[in-house]
Specification:
This protein is mainly alpha-helical. It is built from 7 helices and 2 strands, in the order H-H-H-H-E-H-H-E-H.
Length: 170
């Protein structure tokens, strides 16, 4: 007979008391990631543009456009960027790394590829209704946005390296 496993409860107890990232750090990290993601898009697609022009992924002017409402490949790029960087960066995208924050799973010790992609897809849900999903940070007691709740994650502030050593000396 199958029995309920409260693995999430155990993991939630492990992260209990973790310092949550501020909205300003999260927003800055997101904006930094949009810049990095856009630059990578220009570099990758720009170098492949002659090849891709033959596939029909271009607009009337003959150029490939990066815009979320322009084509499936733009959504795929965003999901790939956030999903893969979050997974391989162990919860950190370049923007989150620069801002000293990290995505942490409430279900697993390490964020899985599926949860990272699920969280990346959740950005779309957070954008709905004028971005209200992002601003739910302010009404959720654990500062979770829609995409956090979809992927069962929180965003925490990371301790600076060396800070613990200084505190131990005092």
């Amino acid at each position: 007979m199958a029995k309920y496993d409260s693995h999430q409860t155990r993991r939630m107890l492990e992260v209990h008391g973790a310092p949550l990232a501020s909205f300003s750090r999260r927003a800055a990290a997101f904006l930094l990631d949009v810049v990095v993601m856009s630059l990578l898009f220009v570099a990758v697609v720009g170098s492949l543009e002659p090849l891709l022009a033959r596939t029909g992924l271009v607009d009337r002017s003959g150029r490939i456009v990066f815009s979320l409402n322009h084509g499936w490949y733009n959504v795929a790029w965003v999901v790939a960027y956030f999903g893969l960087f979050t997974f391989f960066g162990r919860g950190r995208t370049p923007g989150k790394w620069l801002m000293g924050i990290r995505v942490v799973s409430l279900a697993h010790e390490r964020i899985s590829l599926w949860h990272a992609v699920e969280r990346a897809l959740g950005y779309g849900a957070s954008m709905l209704e004028g971005g209200f999903g992002f601003f739910q940070y302010f009404i959720n007691p654990n500062k979770r946005t829609v995409h956090d709740r979809i992927a069962e994650t929180i965003v925490v502030r990371e301790a600076r390296k060396g800070k613990g050593k200084k505190a131990a000396k005092k």
